[in-house]
Amino acid sequence: MKTRSTSPSSILVGDIGGTRTRLSLYDGHGKRLLVEAVLPSRMYDRFDDVALQFLGSSSHPKPSVAVLGVAGPVRGQVATVTNLNWRMDASRLVRSLSIPTVVLANDLAVAARGCLHVSPEVAIPMTGRSAMIADHDLAVIAAGTGLGEALLVWNGTTHLVVPTEGGHADFAPRSAIEIELWQFLAQRHPDHVSYERVLSGDGLGAIYDFFASKAGREPKAIGKKLSEGDRNAAIAEVGLSGQYEPAKRAVDLFASIYGAEAGNLALKGLSLGGVFVAGNIARHIVSARRELFLEGFRAKGRFTKLMGQIPVVLVTDPLIGVRGALSVAKEVLAEGKRATKSKPKASKPR
C-alpha cells in the first residue's frame, strides 16, 4: 500500500484481468456505486491509460483510495498481469493517477474476501452440507481467463487470505484420456503444461481441439457457430446442449478435471470448512455438470470419505472480486481514521 494523505472523496476499485478490466467508482463510504465501466484490457498498453480514461470521463470527486485486484502475483506492491504485458506499481499509480492511497492485491485474494460476505442468493450449495463451516479453513478456486486459487486460513478470530499461484502448478493427468490430453497440450506448450492450460477459457478451447482432432472433419454449422464471437463460450454452449460430441466431451472432461483440482486445493490447504467455486466460463459448466465435478472432487483414494464431508459452494456473483476489493478499501479508510484519532495531541509549551 502506498499513501499520500488527504480527505476522503470517492473509492476506486478494480478487477484487472487478462481479457477485461472492470473499474467501479463508489462514494467515500463505499455504499453507493457512482459509475463503472468494463474495458478490453488488450486494447491498452498499460493500466494507467485505462484508469486515466475512466477517471477522466467522470465528473465525480476524485478517489482518495484505490484497491485493485490483479490477475497475477503481487510482490511489494508491484504486480505483473500474467496474461498481459502490464507491470503495475502502486507508487507510480499514486503519482500518475493522483490517488493518495493505492493498494494492489492478487485478484483471487480480493475475490476470497468477497466470498466471505457472499449473499445466499448467489451462493449455491453443491453438496449435502448447505453452508460453509465458518470457523474452519476455506478455499477459493476460480476458472476464467486464467485459473486462480486462494486459501482463507482461520486464526481463531478471523480469516486470513493467503493468495497462491496454484493454477500454474503441473497438470497431473488421472486417466488414459487425460494422458493423451497432456501429450496434446505438451505439443503446444513444450515448456510446461499447467492446470491453467486446461482450466480456463482457452483451456476449454484446447480440450475441444483435442477431441475434435479425433473426430475428423468439423461440421460446417458447428464451425460457423464457433467462429462467431467468443469461441470458448460457444464451445461451452454447444457442449452443454449436446449438439456436437467433441464439444460435449470437452465440457464433461473440463468439469471433472475442475473438480479434481478443487479437491487438490482443499487437501493442500486442509480446507475442511469448504470450497468456494467461482469464475465466469466455469460457473455455467459446473452448475450443469455438478455430478462430474463432485466425482472429480471426491475421488482421492483413502481420503474420499473426508472429501465427501467438505462443503462446496458455487458462487454465481460475477462481481465477487469487486465486492472483495470494496471491502478492503473500507478497511483501509477505517484504519486511516483510527490512526488519525490515535495521534497524541501536541502539548502546549509552558
Give a structural overview:
The protein is α/β, with parallel strands linked by helices. The chain folds into 2 domains: 2-111 and 319-336, 2-Layer Sandwich (Nucleotidyltransferase, domain 5); 120-315, Hexokinase, domain 1, CATH 3.40.367.20. Helix content is 41%, strand content 22%. The protein is built from 12 helices and 15 strands. It has helices at 47-56, 90-97, 107-116, 176-188, 201-215, 220-227, 231-241, 245-269, 280-288, 290-298, 304-307, 320-342, and strands spanning 2-3, 10-16, 20-27, 33-40, 63-70, 74-75, 78-80, 87-89, 101-106, 123-125, 138-143, 147-154, 159-163, 274-278, 312-315. It has a 6-stranded mixed β-sheet, sandwiched between helices. It starts with a strand and ends in an 8-residue tail after the last helix. 47% of the residues are buried. Mean pLDDT is 91; it is low at 3-8.
Keywords:
Hexokinase, domain 1; disordered N terminus; 22% strand; 12 helices; six-stranded mixed β-sheet; alpha/beta
Task: Kindly provide the name of the CATH class of the largest domain.
Answer: Alpha Beta
Query: What is the C-alpha radius of gyration, as a whole number of Å?
Result: 22 Å
* Largest sheet, spatial ordering of strands: 1-9-5-2-3-4
Contiguous low-pLDDT stretches (5 residues minimum) are 3-8
Q: What general form does the structure show? A: globular
Helix-strand topology string: EEEEHEEEEHEHEEEEHHHHHEHHHEH
What is the count of β-strands?
Answer: 15
Question: Largest sheet at a glance?
Answer: 6 strands, mixed
Q: What percent strand?
A: 15-25%
- Tell me what the CATH architecture of the largest domain is: 3-Layer(aba) Sandwich
- How many structural domains in the coordinates? 2
